[in-house]
Amino acid sequence: MRSGLDVLRPVLIARHPIVALDSFEEDRVERTLDTVARSRFQKPVPLFTWSITRGLRGPDGAVAETRAPLAALAAVGSTREGVFLFRDLHRHFDDPAVVRALRELRPRLTGTARLLFVLGPRIELPVELKRDVVLIDFPLPGHDELEALLEKHAGRLAIDERMRMPLVTALRGLTAIEASHALHLALHGREALDEAVLTALQDQKAQLARQDGVLEYVPQRWALDDIGGLATLKDWFLRRRTLFEDTAAMDRGLTPRGVLVMGIPGCGKSLTIKAISALWNLPLFRLDMSRVFGGLYGSPEEGFRRALAMMEQVAPAILWIDEIENGISAESTGADAGIKGRIFATFLTWMQEKPAQVFVGATANRIDLLPAELLRKGRFDQVFFIDLPEEAERAEIFEVHLRRKGEDLGRFNTTTLAKATKGWNGAEIEAAVSAAIIDAMSEDRAVAEDDIFMQVGKMVPLARTMAEQIKGIRSWAHQRAIRAN
């Protein structure tokens, strides 16, 4: 990740006199601009800062009568040299006089030893300023800065070299202040920098998502061992488990971008995405498209853009879009067809250009609604199809659910149970096991194999009730996806 100075360098070389910096980090920006003031010109120039509460202040103290934006901008025009940092001036862009003052100030600053920076979060430039003011995103702390922060807070605690990269990775996406607070909390009372510290740091990213509201943080509760079958899909994830911690892989563009998992309902698509989070030790965030279309966060397009922007902030992380065809599809009709079309176009562009540290895990049932643009290489690394589990996989699924519910596997013949549930999906197997245990508990006895067989006899599997639809899904996926089973 480039530093703040790296991002500013092209702007300084081009000699833009007025620059808007989109950032929450006032302290880091001020330190960076202090470096600019000391090194940009033939000799060091003073750094001035302005806010509506304190007015314009420089090395010699406050400049009188400059709390009002127009008075402060007039003072900039009458000062011979300096770097000027205006905090939250964008909040006054609805005042035509402020906009006009900036436009008139630009030619007066050009070619002089003066630079004006406007700092604030989520800056929107009015159309009048878009040709006069350069807007850039000030980057969050990079690897070196976060590693130095980790060293500082660790103090006397030794850092296991195996944990160093995962800990620094967990801090990415946080501001310097947020990272500092997160480290204070995670290291409190600790005697070593272990997995518990890593989990605590990831929880801070979850808090960021809760504050924004569009994304839902999904705790790590499932592992690959909790999924029966799907050997091909599991192997794909296992081979890529360390790439988010490998800087060489990131530099070479080898970090995985995303995966689309489609298939028959109830066969573990969503569960698979949840399991990646624990395997790769990355926080998982679910994008709820119903919240996006609900209008609680402005227009659907704005809510969607906010969700993508938040993912870039908390990266490295996994974005989970469940049943992607229901929210992001070009094949829409009705009143919201235009909205969905614009969201779809935004998503395609973002998938092509998104940061390497955001992995997208998408699931789909109605694969016939997914357009070819979404499936082509360059957006998803791979498209997997999950079919109904084979006999050996059904036996594994029985073992997983019996083990998770605390049952002794030695009392059950999972091979026999698997033979009796031909055509069943994983969700139906779980339901049969749960129902059998509940019936046994109601009679105050241990569950037996016969209890499960009894539930099997009562249930009609999806493969029978939706035989034609499943046949169509298999036909579509035959030449278009890799079998996960």
Which terms would index this structure?
alpha/beta, Rossmann fold, Helicase, Ruva Protein, domain 3, 485 residues
Give the topology, please.
Layout: H1 4-13, E1 18-22, H2 26-39, E2 47-51, E3 55-58, E4 61-62, H3 69-78, E5 82-87, H4 96-109, E6 114-120, E7 134-137, H5 143-154, H6 161-171, H7 176-187, H8 195-212, E8 215-218, H9 231-238, H10 247-251, E9 258-263, H11 269-280, E10 284-287, H12 289-294, H13 300-314, E11 317-321, H14 337-353, E12 358-364, H15 372-375, E13 382-386, H16 391-404, H17 414-420, H18 426-442, H19 449-458, H20 462-465, H21 467-477, E14 482-483
Parallel strand pairs: 1-6, 1-7, 2-5, 5-6, 9-12, 9-13, 10-11, 11-12, 13-14
Antiparallel strand pairs: 2-3, 3-4, 8-10
Helix pairs in contact: 3-4, 5-6, 5-7, 6-8, 7-8, 8-13, 13-14, 16-17, 16-18, 18-19
What does this structure look like?
- The chain has 21 helices and 14 strands.
- The strands form 2 sheets. It has a 7-stranded mixed β-sheet with strand order 4-3-2-5-6-1-7, sandwiched between helices. Strands 8-10-11-12-9-13-14 form a 7-stranded mixed β-sheet.
- The protein is an alpha/beta fold.
- The chain has helices at 4-13, 26-39, 69-78, 96-109, 143-154, 161-171, 176-187, 195-212, 231-238, 247-251, 269-280, 289-294, 300-314, 337-353, 372-375, 391-404, 414-420, 426-442, 449-458, 462-465, 467-477; strands at residues 18-22, 47-51, 55-58, 61-62, 82-87, 114-120, 134-137, 215-218, 258-263, 284-287, 317-321, 358-364, 382-386, 482-483.
- The chain folds into 4 domains: 4-137, P-loop containing nucleotide triphosphate hydrolases (Rossmann fold), CATH 3.40.50.300; 143-205, Helicase, Ruva Protein, domain 3 (Orthogonal Bundle); 224-386, P-loop containing nucleotide triphosphate hydrolases (Rossmann fold), CATH 3.40.50.300; 391-465, Helicase, Ruva Protein, domain 3, CATH 1.10.8.60.
- It is 48% helix and 14% strand.
- α14 (337-353) links the parallel β11 and β12 (358-364).
- The two termini are 38 Å apart.
